[in-house]
Design goal:
heterodimer; A: mainly beta; 1 helix; 27 strands; about 40% strand; B: about 90 residues; 5 strands
Chain lengths: ~375, ~90
């Protein structure tokens, strides 16, 4: 069992989930797994609110469907619901294909969790992740019939909450765009003004953009960063308007995006060559970092392969830990996990070779309450 | 009528440890047998059927040696004494 202060990495792969743990120095990592071998783990979370230490892992069996399992002992044992807990109502005509995202609610609502699924929908749990119910305002949205699936399916992959306003949150759907609610989920408005949709005749539609990831810092929730299917954007008004910030990046195509845990204007991305060639430009494994909210970007390369690296990082494959000297981590589709203990200045591979990595999430273990 | 249904060993925990089920159904069809299975073993039903009651896309159902995809789907008749078999498709990656 990890000790308080240890760092936990939850690594979701196409062939199961792994739990990596390290002491606070983050030098040596113990690899535990795979959990749920053969299942694709697109999302995992350690929920430590209200004194819990509850791990969530979504697993998708190609044959038997998608399930969220729970562990209260860091993966030593798992309990999964006998019944599929995240399920669409019969009158929706929809069936769950994949759980893409599990997010905790605010600290002030410790029993609330959200999950985003395919086909695009948002589910809420109010009892710590046992029972889940769809958010009807989004499920019955008037735009739904015009949403189109992207390469990964019609998925709701991103959930951002306003820590100070329980009524406000945003979600992103591929391919529908960014939507925001200001009334606790009853109604949702498309907020994509300024975001291009290069694959549509009208390149500035109200909705229909293929947003790949949205990120923000809880201390400045109104400032959102958006990695689009072509396009890199920032909004300073909770998505009411977006502005191009692709200043000095080799490509504005990419998937992953992560905000620094302590610096709201520091953001990380992994540009890819193009939609037709989804590997890092020039086969150089480069993470790009801005420290001025997108006015400029710098490549981070120390310790990363700079030739023959035909790598791709998926939308949830980049993350950060909350340590004082922030740890930044990413996993590639070819199964290599990299970590930095100095906010991205230098990197090193962690562990061996994993199956294709879908998601990486980092936590520091709290002291028991 | 009673229909015999064979399920993969992996799913036996959701059927009281059994891999061969005896299911009572009024409808002598695959749909009737699947409905009886899901009613008696709901957790097993979740793994074989979607919320909408459709057979999951990577599962094959056989009546005897006949794959129902090439017959009448869930309307395929189950003759007396014929076993319905649930099999994981060869899908993978």
């Amino acid at each position: 069992m990890p000790n308080p202060g240890d760092v936990i990495l939850l690594v979701g792969t196409m062939k199961g989930g792994f739990i990596l743990s390290s002491g606070p120095d983050r030098k040596e990592w113990k690899v535990d797994g795979p959990h749920f071998p053969g299942e694709a783990v697109y999302s995992a979370l350690l929920d430590q609110r209200d004194g819990r230490s509850r791990l969530f892992m979504s697993g998708q069996s190609m044959h038997w469907g998608s399930t969220i399992r729970v562990s209260d002992d860091f993966g030593a044992t798992w309990s999964g619901p006998e019944r599929q807990a995240v399920r669409f109502p019969e009158d929706s005509g929809l069936s769950l294909a994949q759980v893409w995202q599990i997010e905790p609610g605010r600290d002030s609502e410790p029993d609330t969790l959200y999950c985003g699924v395919e086909p695009a929908a948002l589910f809420t749990s109010r009892d710590g992740g046992v029972e889940w119910a769809p958010v009807e305002g989004l499920l019955n949205h008037e735009h739904r019939e015009k949403w189109m699936p992207g390469g990964g399916g019609l998925c709701l992959h991103t959930i951002v909450t306003d820590p100070a306003n329980l009524e406000r949150m945003g979600i992103a759907i591929s391919t529908a765009g960014f939507y925001r609610t200001d009334d606790g989920g009853n109604t949702w408005q498309a907020r994509n003004k300024g975001v291009r949709a290069v694959f549509l005749p009208d390149q500035q539609p109200e909705f229909g953009q293929c947003v790949h990831k949205v990120a923000h810092h809880p201390s400045r929730p109104e400032r959102l960063y958006l990695q689009n299917h072509w396009g890199l954007y920032r909004s300073d008004d909770w998505g009411d308007s977006w502005h191009d910030i692709a200043n000095g990046v080799p490509s504005d195509f990419g998937f992953a995006m992560q905000v620094h845990p302590h610096e709201p204007d520091t953001v990380y991305i992994v540009p890819l060559t193009s939609d037709q060639f989804r590997v890092v430009p020039e086969a150089k494994m480069r993470v790009y970092r801005t420290r001025d909210a997108g006015a400029s970007w710098e490549p981070l390369t120390t310790g990363l392969p700079q030739h023959d690296a035909y790598e791709n990082v998926l939308r949830d494959g980049l993350t950060a830990d909350p340590c004082e000297s922030a740890g930044i981590y990413f996993g590639t589709r070819s199964g290599t996990l990299y970590g930095s203990r100095d906010s991205g200045d230098s990197w090193a591979a962690i562990g061996g070779t994993f199956p294709p990595i879908c998601s990486v999430r980092a936590h520091v273990v709290d002291s028991p309450q | 009528m009673t229909v015999a249904m064979v399920v993969p060993h992996l799913l036996a925990p959701y059927a009281d440890g059994q891999t061969t089920l005896a299911l009572d159904t009024d409808a002598p069809t695959v749909g009737g047998a699947l409905s009886a299975m899901a009613s008696r073993y709901p957790a097993l039903g979740d793994r074989v059927l979607t919320e909408q009651g459709a057979v999951r896309p990577h599962i094959n159902v056989f009546v005897g040696e006949q794959n129902i995809r090439f017959a009448d789907g869930t309307a395929t008749t189950v003759p007396p004494g014929t076993t319905v078999m649930i099999v994981a498709a060869v899908s993978g990656g």
